[in-house]
Amino acid sequence: MKKTFKFDSEWSLAISLLPEERQQLLTEAIKEYQANDTIPDRLDPVSMMGFLMVKAVIDRRKRANMRARERRSRRRAKAVPQSSKMSTIKPEGAPSGIDIKAENALPTVSQHAPLAVTRFFQEGTPSTPLHDTVRCIMQDNVFVLRLCNVSGLTRNQAAEAVFKLVNRRIKRRRPVNDLNRLKTICLDTIPKPTSVRLTQ
């Protein structure tokens, strides 16, 4: 049973134009329908017509509310941490080729590992817009993995390349404030590895 309900000002205005004996019945019927979904049977035809117009609005709001609840529950279900999904017992057997490829694609560095100390990220580095921007970019593990796969760089080399690129754009007075746009620029600009000859 719904404890609260919304009574529109338009409804109050329309009900106030009715005779007093119908006002009370119609107001109670609307409140009862919002709370219990029960259609009144004691209304006269004029009040019933007003009630049916209000009922259509109430039903539309309830459907919209239900759709919003379903969307939120689906989002919550998608946001369940991966660790709880992985805790399910898998049948034993040889892993498929897809599983092996996925395991090899994961970075060897732990997911939340800080950037190693390099000449660009030294201990006690001041918080500047340049350093903060690069840190924000490099905290996106999906971006870092993609950049490392595309460019063939290690995580620290990729951090240095991103640092140089952002610094160069700032010096040339062409900074980019949108991090997603900056990530795209990094993927497009950071040099790709040339064909490497394998020596045996």
Automatic annotation (TrEMBL):
Q: Where is this region: Disordered?
A: 65-97
Q: From start to end residue, where is composition biased (Basic residues)? A: 65-78
Record domain DUF6291: where: 4-79
Q: Name one Pfam family in it.
A: DUF6291
Q: What is this protein called?
A: DUF6291 domain-containing protein
Species for this entry: Heminiphilus faecis
